[in-house]
Design goal:
Organism: Pontibacter aquaedesilientis
Pathway: Lipid metabolism; fatty acid biosynthesis
Number of strands: 7
Bound molecules: nicotinamide-adenine-dinucleotide
Catalytic activity: a 2,3-saturated acyl-[ACP] + NAD(+) = a (2E)-enoyl-[ACP] + NADH + H(+)
Strand order of the largest sheet: 3-2-1-4-5-6-7
CATH superfamily: NAD(P)-binding Rossmann-like Domain
Radius of gyration: 18 Å
Protein name: Enoyl-[acyl-carrier-protein] reductase [NADH]
CATH class: Alpha Beta
Pfam families: adh_short_C2
Strand content: 5-15%
Order of helices and strands: EHEHHEHEHHEHEHHHEH
Helix content: 40-55%
CATH architecture: 3-Layer(aba) Sandwich
Length: about 270
């Protein structure tokens, strides 16, 4: 159902790789809610061609950008403003990648060059996005900037390895740039900490299916889907959440507040 929550708003959406991507669902919902936006992803991801399907469905243009490259981001923000005919109201940073996870490295055996790549792609890129937006004075007042995080920033999930540190840095950047952008332009900056979700990035983490089921059994509402995450993102881009900033917002069906659930106790009792 559409409420026209984003009518007249202009945005940039990073990270739609395929139909399972959280950013894909956000783009579809943003379109439904009346937004105009450009889509972007790393040049490598473009070659898979899927994003063009989304672009067609949303009547959006695609501008390739490696989010670790300030030059690419400068080009993206200036082209986006040209295409959309004005400044930007919302930005979704839906980017994550760890070469260590991809190559199956354990936490005690990390490759440090890759660790730096993980941090650059998954966390520093968020700073770079906001740095470029600030330098170009590209954001409208009361705009909203959002990145996606995971509870491994606060708690230990062994298979999440160096992505845990990336998410901790990401959330810290949201707080610190949130202060700066709030003072400068009344722009709010938040992260959403999302349940495990069956996407390319998600299922790449070792033991994903087991901890997906575990989180589902721990959460009174079950795991939050990509679709409900998109709904939440839309509210944070809308004018209904103007005073929410510098927050890490849990979108996890209640998981983060649980100690143990009856379902998990039952599951373990059956095994022992
Ligand atoms: N899937 C989950 O379980 C889960 C849970 C919590 C948070 N998240 C976060 O949600 C976000 C989106 O991930 P997803 O689950 O939709 O998976 P996804 O694989 O669909 O999206 C990740 C995106 O990051 C992009 N990317 C990688 N390197 C890039 C670069 N250098 N420049 C620009 N883009 C780059 C990829 O092309 C891809 O589109 C990530 O930040 C992820 O950590 C995912």
């Amino acid at each position: 159902m559409s409420y026209n929550l984003l009518k007249g708003k202009k945005g940039i959406i990073f990270g739609a790789l395929d139909e399972k991507s959280i950013a894909w669902k956000v783009a579809m919902r943003a379109k439904e809610e009346g937004a105009e936006f450009v889509l972007t992803n790393a040049p490598l991801a473009m070659r898979m061609g899927e994003i063009n399907k989304l672009a067609e469905a949303c009547n959006a243009q695609v501008i390739p950008a490696d989010a670790t490259s300030v030059e690419d981001l400068e080009n993206l923000f200036s082209k986006a403003q040209e295409i959309l005919g004005g400044k930007i109201d919302f930005v979704l940073h839906s980017i994550g990648m760890s070469p260590n996870i991809r190559k199956g490295k354990t936490y005690g055996d990390l490759n440090y060059d890759w660790f730096q790549k993980t941090l650059d792609i998954s966390a520093l890129s968020f700073h770079k996005v906001m740095h470029v937006a600030e330098k170009q004075d590209a954001m409208n007042e009361w705009g909203s900037i959002l990145a996606l995080s995971y509870i491994a920033a606060q708690r230990v999930f062994p298979d999440y390895t160096d992505m845990s540190q990336a998410k901790a840095v990401l959330e810290s950047i949201a707080r610190n740039y949130g202060y700066r952008f709030g003072k400068l332009k009344k722009v709010r900056v938040n992260t959403i900490s999302q349940s495990p979700t069956k996407t390319t990035a998600g299922t790449g983490v070792g033991g994903f299916d087991a901890f997906y089921d575990y989180a589902d059994k721990m959460s009174p509402l079950g795991n939050a889907s990509a679709e409900t995450c998109a709904d939440y993102c839309i509210t944070l881009f809308s004018d209904l959440t103007k005073m929410v900033t510098m927050q890490n917002l849990m979108h996890d069906g209640g998981f983060s507040t649980m100690g143990v659930s009856e379902d998990v106790v039952e599951m373990i009792s059956k095994q022992s």
